[in-house]
Amino acid sequence: MVQKSLKLILLAAFVLVAGIKFSYAGEVDILLQKLVEKGVLTAGEAQEIKVETQEEVKKEIAQGKSASLPKWVQNTKLKGDFRLRYQDNHDKGAETDRDRARFRLRLGLESKVNEQLLVAFGIASGKTGDPRSTNQSFQDSFDKKPVIIDYAYATYTPFSWATLIGGKMKNPCWEPGDLVWDTDITPEGGAVVLTTKFNDKLDLFLTTGIFLIDETSSTGNDPLIGVIQPGFNYKVTDSIALKGAFSFYDSNNIKNNAIEYGGGTNTKKSGSSTLYAYEYNAIFPAFEISVTEPLKGLNLGMFDVPYACVFGEYVLNSLVEDNNSGYMLGGKIGYQKIEGWGQWQLRYNFARLEKDAVPDFLPDSDRYGGKTNIRGHEIMFDFGLAKNTWLGLDIYRVQSLSDPRQPETLVQVDWNLKF
Amino acid sequence: MKNISLILLCMLIAFFGFTFFCYAEKIVVEGSTTVLPIAQKAAEVFMERNSGADIIVRGGGSGVGIASLLDGTCDIADSSRPIKDTELDKAVSRGKDIKAHVVAMDGIAVIVHPGNKINAMTKKQLKDIFTGKISNWSQLGGNNEKIVVVSRDTSSGTFEAFGELALNKEKVRPDAIMQASNQAVATTVSRTPAAIGYVGLGFLSSSVKALEIDGVVASKETVLSGSYSIGRPLFMYTNGTPNEIAKEFIDFIKSEEGQALAEGEGYVGLK
Question: 0.80 cut: is pTM over it?
Answer without folding.
Answer: no
